[in-house]
Every structure is written in structure tokens, then in C-alpha cells.
Amino acid sequence: MKRYSLSLLAGLTAAAAIFPATAANAAEQLPLAPLCAEQKDVTGPQYAVNLCDVADADQFRTNLAAKGGSHCGPTSLYNAMYYLGEHKGLPMRVTPNGQLMTEYDPGVPADYDEVTAWLGWLGYKAGMGPKGGGSSAAENRAAFDAATVGAKAAGWTVNRGGIGTDNTPEFGLEIAKRLRHAPVQIWYGRYKKNADNTLSRDGGHAVTVVSAKGDVASGKVELLLHDPARSDDHKSAGYLDTQSAPRTEKVTLYRMAIAVKSVPTDPNEQPTVTQRTYWRLMGENYIGDSFPFVEALNWFEAAPPVG
To answer: Rounded to two decimals, what is the model's pTM?
Structure first.
């Protein structure tokens, strides 16, 4: 892999500045993931799609705003974009003459700062402020657009979009169909239960989907995720300055109808209750005081110029 300075990444945002080396004594490269076979079967009543070699970048980093605490959107987006660059050849840059995203490998310690700069730039393009703050699904699609301006100008066909879970009965199948082209971002809200059995949203999170399987009309789908907030060395010494080994989370989504109560910011406003049909996310590592409900996905596609 070629090595370049960050000079072409620098200058647009503070997050894209040259950072000091942080992993000089780390292993030369992280362990390879287990052998994997891609599968893209969505033709029958049963579907199964699996992608291989999908990046699993950490969102928590010293040189990101708020130590990366709200960078789940840009990081899960980065994972999907890196796959498009590695597997489809999609050229993505932060400046017209900048280096390709894939010149920097999230699994190589020497590239850690460059990957961090990419995450900071994607967060900036997704509307995140200098102190952090969240980003929406639509804002992450805008960040993807910013990184692919040059590709589209060069004749690439680049598409992306979002699908909400409310009023999408076959959401699991939609994940699988979109996953055939590239990893998918899913967004879930964390919901607290109220005394009247309604639920109120209390934050959210974004993860990268790498596998989906299920049965049409079953109301459930099994997923494998790369979660930018979860790693085996989380909160251990130096975790903010090193990339963790890839880790896969297994979850199941179940379609459920719920009553969502708003939480007004104005004390003079009255809360409202809205009926929603979301998909409950359940998994061994997703158990806590709140209930995760998947609300939407982002999908991405790319094809090279013809001729």
C-alpha cells in the first residue's frame, strides 16, 4: 500500500489536520477476519445476503470531537464506503486532487490518523459541530455525496437513499436487497418505557449491516453488524488511540407496533402520542434500561463508467 502525507486531507476542517503518531508500537496489522464467502440470494421466500471484508472502524478516538462519542453515523458510513472503494473501485476523496479513501487501511496502525481524519471530515460534511453532536440518516447521505463528487464527474453511477421502517412491512427483505450492493447503515432509537406503557426516544445509534437472512412475511430478520461503539478492548488503556480488532454482533429484528410519546423541549407544549411500526433490535450485547427500535436504513450503490 502506498503511503502519503495528510497534506491533501488537511485544511478543510480541524478534524482533517495532521495528527501526531499514536500507534508506532502496535502490531504491524490487525488479525485477518475468518474465511468468508459472499452470498446474495433474495429470489425466494427465504433470503440470505452476506458480505465479506467489511471494515469495522472504531468511533472513539482522541482526535475527534468529544472523543468520537457521537461519531457513530460517520463511522458506520465509512465502513460502507470503504467496501465500495475496495470491492467496486469507487474513487472517494475529500478534495478533487486528494488521496483515495482506500489509500489508508483501517486495519493498519500506520494509517490510524488518516482514517481518523476521514471520520472527522465525514462528520463535518454530515453537519456535526466542532464539539460533536449527532448526525441524521439524511445528513450522512449528504456526506456520502460530498465524497463522491469527483466519481460522478468522472462518469460513475452513484446512488444512495433511505428507507424508513414505519409502513415498510418487509424491512428485512429491503435490507437484504440493498446489501447485495454494499453494506447498509441502520439507525435505531433508544426508547424508555413510560408509566402509561408508551415509549419515548432517548438517543440513538447507527451501525453497519454486513449480513441479513430471514423469511418473507415472518416479521423478523437476523443480522450481523459492525458496531462502531463496541470492541473487545473498549475503555482499556490506549483504546482511544488504536484501532480494535474486527468484531461482529449478532442481532435479530422483530416488527412491532408501539406508541411513541414525544418529549417536548418547551415546558408549555403538551406531549403527543403517535403509533409507529418499528423493528425491535434484540441481541446479547444490546440489553439495558432502554429498548432499541430500528427506525431507518441508508443504502449505497456504485457502478463504473460504461465504455
So the answer is: 0.89
pLDDT tens figures, 272-303: 999 999 999 999 999 999 999 999 999 999 99
Give the β-pairing of 199-215 and 46-50.
Answer: antiparallel
Write out the three cell numbers for 135: 448526525
Angle (nearest 5°) at CA 59 between 109 and 22: 30
C-beta neighbour count of 225 within 10 angstroms: 25
Name the helix (H) or strand (E) containing 300.
strand 291-303
- CB contact set of 127 (below 8 Å; sequence gap of 6+): 135, 136, 139, 142
Going by their DSSP bridges, the two strands 249-261 and 46-50 should be labelled as: unpaired
What tens digit of pLDDT does each residue of 219-252 get? 999 999 999 999 999 999 999 999 999 999 999 9
